[in-house]
C-alpha cells in the first residue's frame, strides 16, 4: 500500500541529471549492489523508518524487501523522481507500507522524534553542508534511534590496466560535482561528520566492490552500467568546462572501458555508517547553529 503527501519544494542541482538513462543507472546500481550495501540493514515490525532522498526508489525496493512489516516514509525533493519511485515500488512490492512526501531535507514536515530509524543513501555527497543535514535529521529521529548512511568515494577507484587518462575522466566528474556544491570523495569523511553532528556509537565500515572476469555480474552491473555509465554522462559538461580536450576524453573513456574487458579489473569502495541519535543533545539548536 502506498500513499502520497506532497509539499512545495524546488529540486536542487543533481550533477547526474534526471534523465531516463540516469534512472536506469540508479536501478542497475541498487540491484547489483543490494546484497553488499543492504546487508545487515533490517527494521522491526511496526517501526517507523524515514528514507531521505529516495530518488527513483532504487534503494526503497530493497529496504521494503528486507523489512516488509516496517512502516516507511520516503522523501525526495523531485516530484518526477517520486512518481518513478512510487511506480517502481508498486510494481515490485505492491503491499509495501510506504508513504511518499515531496519535501526539502531541511524543511521536513514531520514532528520531532517521529521516526525510529532514518536511512540516507547517496544523498550527502550532493549537499554543500552535509554536517548541517545530518544535524537536521536528528530532530525527526527519536533519542536512541538509528541513522544509516551510505556514501561512495571516487578516490577509492583503482583498476587494471591503469591509465592516467582514465583517472582524468573520473576527476572530471569529481570536479563537476564539487562545482555543483557536492563532494564525490565524501565516504572517507562519514565518521567525523556524524560525530560532529552529535551522533553516538558511530560505526563506519568499508564495503568494497571488486570486479573481474570471474564476476561477470559485477563487471556488467557495476563496472559498465553503474560506474562507467556515470562517467559517460558528464561528457558534455566536462568538455564545455574545458576540463579535458575531446581527444583526451575519448582516450580516457576508452581506457576506462578496457577495465571491463576479460583481462581487466576494477575496484571501488563504498562506506556504510550506522549511528545512534544522542539523547542528551539538542538537535533543534544545533541545526540552527551548525
From TrEMBL:
UniProt GO molecular function: methyltransferase activity
Domain Methyltransferase type: 50-148
Pfam families in the record: Methyltransf_11 (PF08241)
UniProt KW Glycoprotein keyword: no
Annotated spans, Disordered: 1-24
An individual GO BP term: methylation
Transferase recorded as keyword: yes
Alphabetized InterPro entries for the sequence: Methyltransf_11, SAM-dependent_MTases_sf
Protein keywords: Methyltransferase, Transferase
PANTHER family in alphabetical order: TRANS-ACONITATE 2-METHYLTRANSFERASE-RELATED (PTHR43861)
Name of the protein in question: Methyltransferase domain-containing protein
Organism annotation: Streptomyces phaeochromogenes
